[in-house]
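Hello,

Following up on my earlier ticket. Below are the two sequence lines again, exactly as submitted.
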Amino acid sequence: MTSPRVVALSGGVGAARFLQGLVRVVPPECITAIVNTGDDSEFYGLHVSPDIDIVLYTLAGLVDSEQGWGVVDDTFNALQMLEQYGLESWFRLGDRDLATQIHRTELLRGGQTLSQVTDHLRNRLNVTSLVVPMSDQPVRTWIRTPEGWLPFQEYFVKRRTADDVLDIEVRGAAEACPAPEVIEALDAADRVVICPSNPLVSIGTILAVPGIRDALRRCGAPVVAISPIVGGATLKGPADRMMRAAGMEVSAVGVARAYADFLDVMVLDEQDRTLAPRVESLGIRAVVTDTIMRDLHAKERLAWATLAALGSCSRGRSPHQVHPGR
Amino acid sequence: MTSPRVVALSGGVGAARFLQGLVRVVPPECITAIVNTGDDSEFYGLHVSPDIDIVLYTLAGLVDSEQGWGVVDDTFNALQMLEQYGLESWFRLGDRDLATQIHRTELLRGGQTLSQVTDHLRNRLNVTSLVVPMSDQPVRTWIRTPEGWLPFQEYFVKRRTADDVLDIEVRGAAEACPAPEVIEALDAADRVVICPSNPLVSIGTILAVPGIRDALRRCGAPVVAISPIVGGATLKGPADRMMRAAGMEVSAVGVARAYADFLDVMVLDEQDRTLAPRVESLGIRAVVTDTIMRDLHAKERLAWATLAALGSCSRGRSPHQVHPGR
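Thanks for your patience. The regenerated structure is below:
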């Protein structure tokens, strides 16, 4: 039996945790993660791709699993010295993490694309799943707050999401194109998973790159999403407040509605069981399971349940007869 | 009594150790160190200025005094991660040290000159002596060995000076000009000290920048050098082998001869007392003292003896009546 080719749309921490489970139920080399780069930023002249690094470090087994980002047991000596040079240090780049940014920046300056650099890093970290930035062009998320427009990381890390979100702009998206492997991977996919990430500034950013949403609509593979909203709130991050500010219903229904034009199945947490009929009224199948990723076992179980939810689902031109699991 | 303005021509470790003594016998703010940049190199896309950093870290009290370079108690976690990315790591940049290179590189890319960047770093490290690169243009020392031409750091660090030196080229020197403060400092100096550095690849590199040697010849201040060769050998580094290969006498006499066109006084170690008449036969006053910088006290004593050696020495147009000491 051929393993299914699974494409996952991914933000940062929540997505990486889901992917940690996914690589245990599908051969890792059959997985392609298409990762948000709207959070990318420059610190000290270095190109930082936070979501890509979270995914890479997590799949490489290097991540600081407590916080969900950065390298485990990292030190912060370079950052301390940069402080001595009078620089801001609110974006906590550890010494090992800095090495990634130094190397990425050198390769980018040498003319490689972000996809090429990401593929190189992935290889060196022995990550066998493909990790693909949504675009090789710069796309940057900006957040309008009562204090004015802020680059995403200033809103998210420096100001700890304390500001009201009045508006979101994904600058550069309209001019960007998907990275070379993105559309190809979606076209060849047997299953597409929308990870439990922020529907506005993680998945929404990916969808803002022209061509990606269309590819999801037309692709032969069924598309499943895991709701990042459980019991009316996010487990982590500002997605709930952002959705409220954007006039969206803060629930799995609100998320399903945002993806309604391409979504086949929505995975809801058991706490949200009563929302299932409302999701189904959108023409999206609702599957209820425990979505809280407490530990590795729970992540694996969720990945299994997510793929199982697609078991009998087909858009009618899936090229392989596939089943989840090995 | 006005403090003398002292200008020191400086390489790396030996010079920095001498300067550590000098700042204890002259007010640090009266000292300008003109530093070799022929050793500068690029690692991981970062601009590294090894001799400038040795001087800065030493004067800031941050240096790893065992090895004479790098930051004390530094960690090497970024370097270890860069190894994981398949990169060479023979140039041992610690995490704190890397911060200097990251910050320098960002400022240089932003359009600042190496002098401006060095002055900024000096300030942030609370170094009150001026530290000036010999030039803002790239000058790079290359070493010809039986294996071919090697960039200086490959010869010096990667291959640990194991190769025979057939030739030395200071590439870019002919097209370079002295950094803005260099000639000005020499013209305004009350005393000039040539630190106990390699006469070929440290001081020789500085002298290769057009205008600097002329400024030393014409300046009103007397010029004193401390011999880096003691008892026919160097305490550290390949200066002795390089001098031999260049057909120079490997002794304080050989060093004095290399500086004869601008040198007034040569400080010799007591082991080389018998060489004094030969130095004096070059028209250079010889002063004999203990030049081994065992500890801070010895460094201070050597600095004192060096300035004292110039006490009654004048080129006749020194703008101030000055005496060494505070």
